[in-house]
Amino acid sequence: MALAPTTKAVAGALPVGQNSPQNPAHGLYTEKLSGTSFTAPRHDNQQSWLYRILPAAAHSDFEEIDMSTSRTHLSSEESRLRQIPNQIRWDPFDFDDTVDWVHGLNLVAGAGDPVLKRGLAIYVFAAGKDMGKEAFYSADGDFLIVPQHGVLDIQTELGRLLVRANEICVIPRGIRYRVMLPEGQVRGYICEIFQGHFQLPELGPIGSNGLANPRDFQAPVASYDRDETEWKVIAKFNNELFVATQDHTPFDVVAWHGNYYPFKYDLGRFNTLGSISYDHPDPSIFTVLSAPSDTVGTALADFVIFPPRWLVAENTFRPPWYHRNNMSEFMGLIAGDYDAKIGGGFRPAGASLHNIMSAHGPDARAHEAASNAELAPQKVGSGSMAFMFESYLMVGVSKWGLKTCQKVQHDYNAESWTPLRSRFDYDGMPKSGADGGFQ
Ligand SMILES: O=C(O)Cc1cc(O)ccc1O
Ligand SMILES: [Fe+2]
After folding, report:
1. Active-site residue flag, 354
2. Gap from CA of 101 to ligand 2 centroid (Å)
3. Is 248 labelled a binding residue?
4. Domain 272-416, CATH 1.25.40.10 — does that match?
5. Fold classification of 26-76+95-267 (topology level)
6. Of 166, 200, 297, 305, which one is least surrounded by beta carbons within 10 A?
7. Does the annotation flag 43 for ligand binding?
8. Which pTM was predicted?
């Protein structure tokens, strides 16, 4: 995000005209949090300056948490990835009231390696317990969190964010936070990127406004606690979990400024654009945030939404076309229906994966309906919100995602596309034919 907030919970806590005075006001410590290399180009450079009661370094050594007893399927056998070309769809994932945020992360798909800062991971989360006196951070990447159900009260080092279904938030690499569940059980999806950061897509000929507008992103304001009791810090470090203790709260930042911070966005604020003449446009016009790869115009991860919208295109098959994509497409549904799938199998809290070059498109029923629809202006998706994590990487599916979760629909293709019948009008045509143009 381009914004660079300045925020202080106490007057005078932010130094004026410099970042690191010899003795910061009120006896605070100065700490710099870098989101990019020191030498990243100016327009990419992300960092924040924190003024806190004690530096983040003041903790015991980290000890590895034994993952075999953990339900966090990150690096266990459950997280082994398999790349397969089948179209995959999942029934709604279960709630789990027995775990907190950290233990409710289930790796479902991914590619790459946090060690090399390459790739991404897709999780579904389900939790029903508040985190205790502990803060979690991922050294592996940035979390884009998409709640499908419930309310996340997220206390971060830089302040609090209340995030509900139909809102999203991004917690960048390294930022420590704790998730409380004021309304009980929560469920949703996460895309973690091991390289770079999410940013707003370029608007090109769209002009200076549209899609997600910068003013609608919200950053936390500084807030600190006074607490000198024992706290834990849990680190996700190369997909293993480590824990350290400290004798004071990690939430002690009294003031901060910079452009590296967690933020939230209400998907209802999205300014959805579309065709007002003919044909179905590429879904890139629905991109909320994009994490670039090293190739210009090619995303490590695009976060794309399908909000309620008007379809008015004339003489057009209005749902998505049948297609095979150079990119992989992981989709989820926050609420309602998705217009390309009316067979009933794509349900809120479920998911689908159409990997690189895996053919997909409207199911047979959606094709039938759209081919015969009267093309009056039509509002689709009222009360609904589907989304897609689209990546240039071939994502693998974890063992948990393929087997253990027991949500894979084994009849997905059989219900969606194999029922399609040939509609080719053979009558009066030769049995086979070729364009004779080049003979
Ligand atoms: O496959 C999908 O349902 C996602 C999608 C939607 C769309 O409008 C165009 C292309 C696309 O991949
Ligand atoms: Fe697609």
Report:
1. no
2. 30
3. no
4. no
5. Jelly Rolls (2.60.120)
6. 297
7. no
8. 0.97
